[in-house]
Amino acid sequence: MDTEKIIEQALKAGFTLAAPLDPKTIELLPEVRKMCEANTCHAYGTNWACPPACGTLEECAEKVKKFSRGIIVQTTGVLEDDFDSEAMLETSEKHKKTFSEFYEFLMENHSGELLALGAGGCTICKECTYPDEPCRFPDKMIVPMEGYGIFISDLCTKNNIKYNHGKGTITYVGCYLFK
Ligand code: SF4
Fold it and tell me: What is the mean pLDDT of residues 44-61?
């Protein structure tokens, strides 16, 4: 499938924005990985998709370099005020759902290898098997962009994509890489 067609389908799937991503603009930064280690999201070391289980930055770079094309997707929600946690959660859930569903759509409709980098740790299973048993769904598992050391707002800027959609909004971001 060509990139324009994939973007069209991503918008149809429910993302509020979808645009081309040049994989050459992806930088994997140790500073971002350090933020994961600080564990403010409480996901570090709790699932196969997050560091340290998702691999070293060098291993992540090896995976990223296989891809020549990609898209960035966003889900933006409107907040009543800066403390509107209900709308934040709702937008986050919507983004995760759309992201997993569209990943499945790509797996079924796009020939060739794919890499999906989402927002936050993998939540496919109620309880992750990490670290005692292997991942139950390695093909569906979604790794967070931050886990790969990606500084999200910077990546959007490098690809001429708006990240901040104004006061009173919140935006969740993900990307799909393909050949
Ligand atoms: S698919 Fe399940 S077992 Fe695998 S990383 Fe996600 S939550 Fe863990």
Answer: 94
